[in-house]
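Box 3.1 A note on notation
Throughout this textbook, protein chains are presented in two layers. The first layer is the amino acid sequence; the second is a token string describing backbone geometry. Keep the layers aligned when reading.
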Amino acid sequence: MPVTKAEASLLSRRTGMSIEDFTWKNDGILTLLNSATTKACVFLLTSSSDISAEGMCSVYEVRPQGCKTYPNVLSENDTAILDDGCPHRAQFPDPTEDDTIVLLNLEERLLRER
């Protein structure tokens, strides 16, 4: 999950972790790390690597914009779609034009920070 520098800074302040402890750079964009044990986001409270395992976000109140909009992601032609990799996508409505605008704005912020 990509995060802006401001989001990473807020997560660092709220968790007491250094930004390097929970992000890596993917093509110059800060991206949340996955736990080596669970293969899920480092902030997901779970003990299982099963993709359908229950879990709870430990930073829910300050979660990044990408997490707020997931499972909506941008397609190659810049429209919002439901992520094929999300095992729960059938539980979500189809994305709207507003969802596309939110994702395009997020992408623009991320690319400017690169």
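The mean pLDDT is 96. The first helix runs from residue 5 to 15.
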